[in-house]
Amino acid sequence: MDLPLIIATSALLTLMILITPTMLPLLIKNHQNSPYTITQSVKTSFMISLVPATMFMYSGLESITFHWQWKFITNFKIPLTLKMDQYSLMFFPIALFVTWSIMQFASWYMASEPQITKFFFYLLIFLIAMLTLIVSNNMFLLFIGWEGVGIMSFLLIGWWHGRAEANTAALQAILYNRIGDIGFILCMAWLAISMNTWEIQLHSSQNQIPLLPLLGLILAATGKSAQFGLHPWLPAAMEGPTPVSALLHSSTMVVAGIFLLIRTHPMIHNNQTALTTCLCLGALSTLFAATCALTQNDIKKIIAFSTSSQLGLMMVTIGLNLPQLAFLHISTHAFFKAMLFLCSGSIIHNLNGEQDIRKMGNLQKALPMTSSCLTIGNLALMGTPFLAGFYSKDLIIESMNTSYLNTWALLLTLLATSFTATYSMRMTLLVQTGFARMTPVSPINENNPAIINPITRLALGSIMAGLLITSYILPAKTPPMTMPLPAKIAATVVTTLGIILALELSKMTNTLTIPKQNPLLNFSLTLGYFNPLIHRLSSMNLLNNGQKIASHLIDLYWYKKMGPEGLAALQLKAAKTSTTLHTGWMKTYLASFALTIMIILISSNH
Amino acid sequence: MTFLHLSFYSTFTLSSLGLAFHRTHLISALLCLESMMLSMYIALSMWPIQTQTTSQTLMPILMLAFSACEAGTGLAILVASTRTHGSDHVHNLNLLQC
């Protein structure tokens, strides 16, 4: 059995099946796509992508296929190569599984949308761009995929483009991603100059790469994966429909930045400064996002901040020099995060558009399937032992506890882990338990296979994915086997503390009265004061300076003040000064005679 | 500088200061002007004797002619302003003051 051929062929077939719905209207006249056909193509693609994945698990075979070469200039050629390695072969089935479930869900969620086929088409193009990013072997093709997911994110966030907040959020996403792209292009430029190639496997892992291109890569990851500093676009992106949030901003697009760092890990792993930057940046992002999620009342925003926090955790793992573990976390996170978003979408539609958790309650009895899956998702997110999140999250915390690193980063991550438990438990309690706080007449009905099947499928994935992936993929670095008892159970202990805190606090809100507003919550409520400060300050400075240079500098200064009017002003000043001498008095006139004679006498003595 | 040069310089300087810083009457300014002319005449006369260039002895005579003209002009101004204003005070000549 010719394994490389089968792996390469089936991987390419996966991509080809995905491209089919885009090609068919061009080839066949009067061909109409429909949501059903697009969903079916994604499902077929998923089934076929299982073939190379299982081949890889069986044999450990990785391959690079070469398709075409763009002969750009004489000695710098850009080949079109696809790399089927552990990361791309494992991510294909996961991404396709999640997308299939989301598309099935979206056929119910967006059923009243007149342009539903266009929506599905956008989702499909997004998926193609994302898979291009995953499977590419050089930075150029990766950048094509990178920009593709950015554009589709803009189009999908602003799907309801009549809404001003949606347009603002889409623009925010593009701007913040653009800042990250500067770092990406910096790295590409450096690579083109010094290594004359953009192929990732050719980047030597022996040489000491200078810090500048690595900082460019970290900047790109900060922009795309919403680390602290370039993070506001991710909560704002919740303006898009829930399937968009589930696909882009939880499972696939936002992990592109982390995936870039995983792919270029051979460049980073020798440079301790870059690794420490990743570590501290990730720790700060995870804690900041977890803090902001504590006081949010919109269910989608809580899940968005949860995503941001988990992305910070992935960045921390990169900083620990463990790319494979980061990829494991990406894979398991995709399942339960997409499921959380789908459950929230089901709740929102069933409550006729209500997104505020203070107006939900007792959904455990009204929406049993949805709330069970919500509970499973939250438990997996918290890292409950032996669900999917446990295999990645607990390993990350254990590795942090047993390695020689920055204590501040460790403390922040542990604190963020307990906050994760707190806000997840808060969401669960407020949404599912207690008394119903919604309006009496709500169209609550979840008896639709288009809702139930995707959610249960993803729930099954959330439970089993961790076990399956870790059973079949060998770790590249030896995980820590022995550690003292507190280090081993640290993650579980802080999670339990967070749960207890949430239970106590929720009891407090129901039974005790809080007399006045609590100013301690202001930092978390206003998302750290970041948005108004940075959005207004930087743009005002930039625009002011621009106006000065563009209009004031040329017109006012060069033409007026330095030119004619400036000369006139100088003359005026000189004239005004000499008027005091020209008074017309005889004495002054004769004194000037004396002065002249004095000067001549004195100077002629030399 | 020799004593002779010093006397010429000091006479000229003092006369010019007198011209500039007189107080009331125009005639005192004209008198200072005459003393300036006098010192210049004596200096110009001494000079060809000291440098033994006899062709320069024409200089003081020329200077004298011109100074006579200027003295006549000055006196004419004096008489004209006296006839107009009734006295020869210098502040009569502040015609252009602002």
UniProtKB/TrEMBL annotation, chain A:
Keywords: Electron transport, Membrane, Mitochondrion, Mitochondrion inner membrane, NAD, Respiratory chain, Translocase, Transmembrane, Transmembrane helix, Transport, Ubiquinone. InterPro entries: NADH_DH_su5_C, NADHpl_OxRdtase_5_subgr, ND/Mrp_TM, NU5C-like, Proton_antipo_N. Residues 136-416 form the NADH:quinone oxidoreductase/Mrp antiporter transmembrane domain. The keyword Disulfide bond does not apply. Residues 70-120 form the NADH-Ubiquinone oxidoreductase (complex I) chain 5 N-terminal domain. It catalyses: a ubiquinone + NADH + 5 H(+)(in) = a ubiquinol + NAD(+) + 4 H(+)(out). GO terms for cellular component: mitochondrial inner membrane. GO terms for molecular function: NADH dehydrogenase (ubiquinone) activity; NADH dehydrogenase activity. Core subunit of the mitochondrial membrane respiratory chain NADH dehydrogenase (Complex I) which catalyzes electron transfer from NADH through the respiratory chain, using ubiquinone as an electron acceptor. Essential for the catalytic activity and assembly of complex I. NCBIfam families: NDH_I_L (TIGR01974). This is NADH-ubiquinone oxidoreductase chain 5. The lineage of its organism: Eukaryota, Metazoa, Chordata, Craniata, Vertebrata.
UniProtKB/TrEMBL annotation, chain B:
This is NADH-ubiquinone oxidoreductase chain 4L. Gene3D superfamilies: 1.10.287.3510. Belongs to the complex I subunit 4L family. It is found in: Mitochondrion inner membrane; Mitochondrion membrane. Core subunit of the mitochondrial membrane respiratory chain NADH dehydrogenase (Complex I) which catalyzes electron transfer from NADH through the respiratory chain, using ubiquinone as an electron acceptor. Part of the enzyme membrane arm which is embedded in the lipid bilayer and involved in proton translocation. One of its GO terms (cellular component) is NADH dehydrogenase complex. The lineage of its organism: Eukaryota, Metazoa, Chordata, Craniata, Vertebrata. It comes from the Eukaryota. It is a multi-pass membrane protein. It comes from Sclerurus mexicanus. Its EC number is 7.1.1.2. Keywords: Electron transport, Membrane, Mitochondrion, Mitochondrion inner membrane, NAD, Respiratory chain, Translocase, Transmembrane, Transmembrane helix, Transport, Ubiquinone. It catalyses: a ubiquinone + NADH + 5 H(+)(in) = a ubiquinol + NAD(+) + 4 H(+)(out). The chain crosses the membrane at residues 29-49, 61-80.
